Amino acid sequence: MKNRFFLAGLFMLFSVLSVQAQKKIKVMILDGESNPYHRIDIGTQILKKLLDEYQPFEVEVVSAPGKDGDFSNFMPKFTDYQAVVLNYDVPTERWPDPLKKSFEQYMVNGGGLVIVHAANNSFPGWVEFNKMIGVGGWRDRSEKSGPYWYYKDGKLTEDTQPGSAGSHGARTPFPIKLVKTDHPITKGLPPGLDAPQ
Fold this sequence. Notes:
Elements: H1 2-20, E1 25-31, H2 40-53, E2 57-63, E3 83-86, H3 97-108, E4 112-115, H4 127-133, E5 148-152, E6 155-159, E7 176-177, E8 192-193
Parallel strand pairs: 1-2, 1-3, 3-4
Antiparallel strand pairs: 5-6, 7-8
């Protein structure tokens, strides 16, 4: 169920790009490291297969060096791609400043970014990355990284109380309710689904 909504969102986002372009959309899947709870090796393979099957995309996988790897020569040419799919979860200090600046410039110039699940955990101390991902993020983030957002009594609520950010309780079924149905990513999706039994 969760995978269906993720894939629907991913394809809808890329559909917006594909309407604007007649030629193939060049996409980089950037991986290389993750936390112990997620199998990026399998995730990257699945993402690549799905995007390869959807004809408008030309997909390349770029793997960053691991924890003790050498980043001195790792400088992907982000500008060669219309979108970067980040399937990558690392601490702030993993990327040297020139690499961060290169990615920031790519985004400022209109580059696309798709965050895959645990990638929102990356770079908690990188202010510009926190702006890029908008909402989300674990790994040592607090209220200083941004507020909690949730719906309460039908209204979007901002919680700025001090405390750690990013957590989830036990994994249990839950109903899904679409709040904004006219956004390009959600347009055409059902208004909600009951929790699976």
